[in-house]
Design goal:
The chain has 15 helices and no strands. By secondary structure, it is mainly alpha-helical. The chain has two domains: 209 residues, Up-down Bundle (Growth Hormone, Chain: A), CATH 1.20.1250.20; 196 residues, Growth Hormone, Chain: A (Up-down Bundle), CATH 1.20.1250.20. 82% of the residues lie in helices and 0% in strands. The mean pLDDT is 83.
Amino acid sequence: MAVVRDLRVLLRFGNFRRLLAVRLLSQGADGVYQVGLATYVVFSPEKQTSATAIASAMAVLLLPYSLVGPFAGVLLDRWRRRQVFVHGNVLRALLATVTALLILGEAPDWLFYVSALCVTAVNRFVLSGLSAALPRVVDGERLVMANSLSPTAGTLAATAGAGLAFAVRLLVSDSDAAVVLLGATLYLCGALAALRIPRELLGPDPALVRPRLTAALSGTLRDLAAGVRHLAEPPRRAAAWALGAMTLMRFCYGALTVMVLMLCRYALTSDEDEGLALLGLALGVSAAGFFAAAVLTPWAVERLGAGGWIAGCAAAAAVLEPALGLPFATGPLLAAAFVLGLTTQGAKISTDTIVQSSVDDGFRGRVFSVYDVLFNIAFVGAAAVAALMLPSDGRSVPLVITVAAIYATVATAMTRFGRP
């Protein structure tokens, strides 16, 4: 396979192997920690889970990516990236240990959320640093290949970490604190792996650092505003419509995720372990939809265009989501998880393509920063809206119908206005 061949070529670079090890351990730990956080909030026997608690957990997991993300690069250009990996992973290991102690001590929820928020905030710096360091460990000829394979390997590691966390929770120890401590151990392993990289290798070059931090931070805000103005120009109409469509589809996916969590906890089974296993299965099926989208989307875009494929994904979700969701039964729920994984990821790949092809190169990075902020805030906002609409068992016909209407609106808008 071409992917295996490319990976073999990259692994000949010793420092690439070391940086990849840091990524795999760090993102594997992320998967473990996030499942530990989710299962504590949703499936702890001593807690009466509510949609509000789930929305709070999602905000903790995602808001740092939106609020800290645009500024992470400014700081990463002033700190040695290798040290960011070492100190960042050690700090996350300590904070994750604190989270585990708070779980065992039944601390107030706000204190637990503050601890988890700090872990995910540090995570933004580590992930950004991994991307920024990549050109330092491979040559220019293989940089595109490395940019393709390295983040994909990290995503697979996070998925594997989530699976490991589910296995530990169900088979080894019925303790959310044990799962979080496992994540802390993996973070510490990531720090140790980073120590194998020479201190100065990953940069940055001190000669390229902006002299004043305040100027760099204020410049970041100006850059984001310039990206928004660039999208408002008529030649970028397709990119603006695609970003709007993707934001709404991400909102729908977030609202339905909260509903699935509540259904797995209360409506579809009365046993907490069975509910946790069902949630793991639903997430796995949705991930399968993501991979199916990666295979299907190039073929569909070639025939429908990127905007047409976004419209097709939204239309399919508008029809199938209520058909599969309204029975509130396990089989249709799993089918809906696959469909929504496929349509959401298919639309995201198409949106990425439209933005890359429609936006001027000088604005592309800034527009993708805006994209990142919209993507995560839409998910958190959806969780907040779902918290207001969902009953205690998660069965909400109004929420299902509302989401279907939003999908239909996206499909109509992209059919009429979203094509280049």
